[in-house]
Amino acid sequence: MSKSTSPYPVLSADGTGTGVVSQAGATVLLRTAEKTGLTTDLSDALTPWRKPLATHDPGKIITDLAVAVAIGGDCLADINQLRANPAVFGQVASDPTVSRLISALAADAPAALTAINSARAAARAGCWSAAGTTAPDHDADTGDPLIVDLDATLVTAHSEKQDAAPTYKRGFGFHPLCAFVDHGSEGTGEPLAIQLRPGNAGANTAADHITVTAAALEQLPTVQGYRVGESVLVRTDSAGGTHEFLGYLTRRHLAYSVGFGLTETTAAVTDRISPEAWTPAYDADGVQRDGAWVAELTGLIDLSGWPQGMRVIVRKERPHPGAQLRFTDRDGLRLTAFATNTVRGQLADLELRHRRRARCEDRVRPAKDCGLTNLPLHGFDQNRIWCAIVMLACELIAWTQMLAFTDHPARRWEPKRLRHRVFSIAAKISRHARRTRMKMATHAPHVDLLLDGIARLAALPAPA
């Protein structure tokens, strides 16, 4: 027998192992779903779609799909990762049962989405209540508002799907518009609404921005009535800078910070701003940045057609090396502007708050890691249901970080890192004295983080 020269141990493999659970770390997602009331809320909301004498509850099927997507699945069939471990995930529906449920929900998509969204809103309220001082809406006021970010993204379709269309980047697929609540620099974020649109949908379509904003506001526990108040700030890029959309935000008494497109005529007005009116701008850390300034443009341009109380603030800076100047740039300096109705605050602070809208890209990326990269179904309404599952998966991860990993850097980890370090931890099932125990892998590097998170969730009160 020759001696192996491989640097790895030589092992024989077979498929006779029992009591072994892969993806055991996903139990922290299950505990989050239970403590926020999501499992009960989905079960109650989807009762109309449960057939008499049915074995599987539609609410649990949707929850199982969300968990499967959260741990890395990207199609309905990936629920088999849960089905293989009934000791942890319970009885999981078969693939045909899952497909039939999705088809049934898609057949009455408006009612089904309303039901799922109502369950999401109720669970969000339970999660934020349990989070206490770490909740995104804790002590939110006009000076420190709860921030809702809007952004669109492109989803490529690799086959003929219903309502897929060419995109402005010469691709083919869909152009969903998303809304996320920002958890701030110490956290991540969670989706509030995703409106699936054909690929040729306009970037600055005011009707779509209004629809998504209204759906997002319905998800916020603190919003009561039509006039929300300026303790909620809607933030978006220049695609939202339309008369109709800003008029809608004004009617609902929302605060806003929206990109404002500059024309050559408007950009030329900046030449009339006195040098003393320019104040230093801040970098991402709130420190004065060399070569960047901000100034008020409101009184120098005609805003008669815009909502009353709107301000326009302009920023000029030296472009980054290699960046090309545009026609609206002046004297070799890059010009950008945004509109806001916030009255108080230093110009540099307001401009920094608006520039932090870039964090929305950090919310779109996890959504694509959780099933939004490729819509797996053919029907448009089926993919709308899939988008709801994507939001549930992202919310389960965000709520787990908020409740279980509050004081740990894992609070800001993205799904890929959580899967690699936490969800993939394996365990062994043992039974003794009529109790079932799950023994996590002793040498897993982050097993203590997982166990601490499960213990923290167990200490939370049961949902009302």
TrEMBL record:
NCBIfam families: transpos_IS1380. It comes from the Bacteria. It holds the Pfam family DDE_Tnp_1_4. Residues 10-461 form the Transposase DDE domain. This is IS1380 family transposase.
